[in-house]
Amino acid sequence: MQISREKVIAASVTAVVVLFFFWALLYPLSFSLVEAVREPVLQPVQAGESWSAAATRFGVSESRLKSLNTGAATRPAPPEGKPLVTGHAFTLRHVFRIFDSNAPQLAGIINSLIIAVLVTFLCAIVAYPLAYIQARTTFWKQSLLAGLLLLPLVMPPFVGAIGLRRMFAKYGTFNLILMDLGLVDSANPIDILDQYRLFGCVLVMVLHFYPLLYLNLAAAISNIDPSLLESARSLGLTPWQTFRRVVLPLSVPGMVAGGSLVFVGAFTDLGTPLVFGFQETVARQIFSLANEQQSNPAAPALVAVVTAIVLILFALTRWSVSRGGASGGVKGQSRIAPNPLSPRWTALAVGLHVVVIAAALLPHAAVTLNALGQRWFMTPLPQVFTLDNMAEALSSNIAIMGMRNSLVFSLSSTAINIVLGLACAWAIVRGGGWWGKTIDALSLAPLAIPGLVLAFGYVGAYADIYSKPWHGMNIGVGAFLILSYAIRRLPFVVRACVAGLEQTPRNLEEAGLGLGAAPFAVLRRITMPLIWANVVAGGILAFSFAMLEVSDSLILATKPQDFPLTKSIYQLFGNPGNGDQLASALGLVALVFLSVSLLAAGAFLGKKWGQMFKG
Predict the structure, then answer these.
(1) Same domain, 465 and 555
(2) Residues 340, 133: contact at Cβ < 8 Å?
(3) How many helices (H) and strands (E) does the chain have?
């Protein structure tokens, strides 16, 4: 009877979660994909023909015919001389046109692929030595340096790009330093913001995304079975041969998992190209076409191509990780015993960490200097430091509304995430069977769908609902921002709760049920006290990243009263005069907020919190 009750609960949870995923993820995504592969069927109108006569001749109902021709539906009769839409037919013509040599969308795809490949490659070069040193050795101040490596996660890349614009300017900090060193001609400085925008985007993204690859690689290397390394040494392999033949191949799943996150993040990043004015990227083009889905078939076709690329990459990643996990080379019974470094190698390890951390702090320093500085022109650093920019930014209506809206939207989405996250985790760990596998697959699905693609689907599927009264109800864009935030950050909460439940003895819950306690009472009095730290940590991560969500906020929020924090930052950035300084001031507030949030999450999760970013 107990097993039967658990199965009933698991099935109920599955039904609720599937409905949520349908409305929040599957329907808007499928809406865009369907629009990409269909085109209207046009039929001519006969002279003097009424709506009912035309509907009868075309074989559709009159109401259906009018709904397909909303522009002419208010007329007493169909307009003569103009064809009517009578239905839709399947076609791949719009998708194939994306790959025409003259299509502007093709250039955007190529540029975005170039950016994604470069960013992933450079992140691997930066992350692998750091992950190997952290996983295989011990050295001075290792834990502190490991924590500092994660600093880029506390700020969205587009906020860092706003700060770096002034440093990368024609007569900005970097060019002025190079001029003083005699490396650059003062009459012809390096113009990153004009001639090398792609390089600027790549640099900002590398400094932001490398921790995702580092976390996955560190976990993969530390989980290599020690017996394999012992066998390699006993066979006489040198340290280099052991690394090349054992460590490197067995760390490939971590490389693929982290690399896919970096690749997709760079491929679909919207904020950085917007700030650097780099128009020819797929994210920038989707942003421009978001409100032209009905009139421009290239819009959903481009989204379909991006979705296909991301889903193929996600499938290959899952296959590679599962294949690597099945090889017997990772996740051994015990972890590798780290080797203490000699003083000389310790100096090299610490030096490498310091160089990477210093580079990673550049966007943070640029935002801080831009927010607190004045009279910063033709000088490497601001000549005056003041809080005037902070005061002006925080007193503006757009900033106040942005912070208020983000708090409301993020708190609401986090509440949804905690409830659904607990339900999903319970079904995965306690329910088992096909229910648990279904929920597990659904909970990972948002990781495969970029926020840019999801926001585009929301505009097409739900714009008529949130832009005007729907069945007598006024549903604002905030409700759909909450829905979008919730589905995008749900995996964080699910993974945190799953980790907690897996460490909680099941016999305690069975004892409670055996004593006659209701399932909810068991959850409240036994399970929750044991996993509350995991729930809180997952909730903090979901809340903090929802506060700084970029793609959904920039695309969905079009009116000032709906602006979240990130849209307010972008709007302030566009102000003439000191717009970049006001945006940096508000970005500095976001930086401090997310830093505190991640520190709190780390305090609750300890060493496991990095798993929230794994693919």
Answers:
(1) yes
(2) no
(3) 30, 6
